[in-house]
Amino acid sequence: MCSRMLMKKLFFLLFACGVGAGVTQSPVLAQDRIYRCGNEYTNNASVAKDRGCKVVEGGNVTVVQGTRPATGSGAKAASSPPSAPRVDANDQKARDADARAILQSELKKAQARLADVKQEYNNGSPQRNALDLRNTQKYMERTADLKAQLDRAEADVAGIQREIDRLPPVR
Question: Edge-to-edge, what's the strand order for the sheet holding 54-55?
């Protein structure tokens, strides 16, 4: 009983694929010869012959066509996606001006911190306090800490200056 139903389903499946209808090859099952030309694949025999491509054997090959990257003077290095909202030129200028003002304010604060740390560091000889006079190890640790703070403050100033330099020029 079960094998009879299985045979009916199999017959129906074969008939639906075109085998039972006298069709020699079903469009679903047919595949042209595929040729490999280096890293490219083609099913065009004349192109494959001209380029000396080899036939790919042993299974079906699925090739998904991709898009080639745009080249030449028309291509932009970085562009926003087409769905990105457009900003009015005046609004963008105002945003740039705000960013510049914020960064200039941060630069002034960072430069003030740098000046304070430089003064306290005193070219590697900070002024000794009562604790430092009794414990030279504490003095060396404080000096190393001040040197690290000085390096960090200099890096902060340089980083903020780089960000300001990246902004569009003021017009």
Answer: 40-42, 35-37, 54-55
Note the pLDDT tens digit of each residue in 118-171.
Answer: 999 999 999 988 887 888 898 999 999 999 999 999 999 999 999 999 998 877
CB 56 within 8 A of CB 32: no
pTM strictly above 0.90 = no
The whole-angstrom separation of Cα 98 and Cα 92 is 10
Length of the chain: 171
Under 8 Å between Cβ of 160 and 107: yes
Angstrom distance (rounded) from CA 47 to CA 25: 25
Q: In 3-state terms, what secondary structure has residue 42? A: strand
Largest CA distance in the chain: 106
Torsion of CA 135, 139, 141, 142, to 10 degrees: 130
Residue 156 tokens read as 């902060």
